[in-house]
From TrEMBL:
Signal peptide segment: none
Residues covered by the LD-carboxypeptidase C-terminal domain: 170-281
Protein name: Peptidase, S66 family, LD-carboxypeptidase A
Origin: domain of life: Bacteria
Organism whose genome encodes this protein: Desulfobacula toluolica (strain DSM 7467 / Tol2)
MF terms (GO), sorted A to Z: carboxypeptidase activity; serine-type peptidase activity
Amino acid sequence: MGTTPLQPGGVLGVCAPSSRFDPETLNRGIRVLEQLGFEVRVPEEIFQKKRYLAGDDKLRAGLINRLFSDPDIDAIICARGGFGAMRVLDHLNWNLIRHHTKPFIGFSDCTAILLSIIDQTGNKVIHGPNVVSFADAPQKTIDSFYDTIQDSVDAIKVSAGQIIKPGKCTGVLKGGNITTIAHLLGTRFQPDFKNCVLFMEDIGEPAYKIDRMLTQMKMAGLFVGIRGVITGSFENCDNIEYLKEILSEIFDEYTVPVLSGLDAGHGKINLSLCMGTDVEIDTVNSRIHWI
């Protein structure tokens, strides 16, 4: 169903494809991962600095390539989001990544890499906390990560789910941060959501900007052939009360279920989601089930 399970004692390699980070916050996140029983390896390269980035593009990409090729690394997790992940896409060795299957974990700006791994290699990924997120993560976020990385999650109940459009569907779960997805439009890494259940979340974007980005995606044909939609958290987004109406209008012409309220993304709770694999969405039971 999911990615290759990572058992306690497994080795997590840290990469930094996006923005610079606070070393102390990183260390606090690492301690949480170590308390779960994992060994965490932190390459010196991630502490490089170039403007707001964690080093130059080739260095950040080269580290990801190296972690994928290293037989001693069982899974790869991003240090933080911010900006910069899309800048490394042209420098990643997709053939190498395709033939060295291992869990790749991250969210936010790292959406660019998650979606590209699925589309370029067919490998599965985990939309879940970056290392710095673990520093102050609630237990529910930590438990979800631990269960997902061990491939022991088969369903998530969307307890606070709101049905925008009722229905039931199956498809490949793909998606992530709306702003990052929008910035991939028109590039060779524009994601393909045909036959997919689309997941979306964001932070700090007012309702009109969410509307604008979704409208752009729709006009670009990004939603043609989707099977369903599920939305996560929209943290610190102004006029969020408009979101239900926006989603209803954007997806009105598609005969697909739309469910909101999944605790995944930039909210206090960030449930881990295995992506690139088939799921079933059922709005009646407000549930996402991995097939």
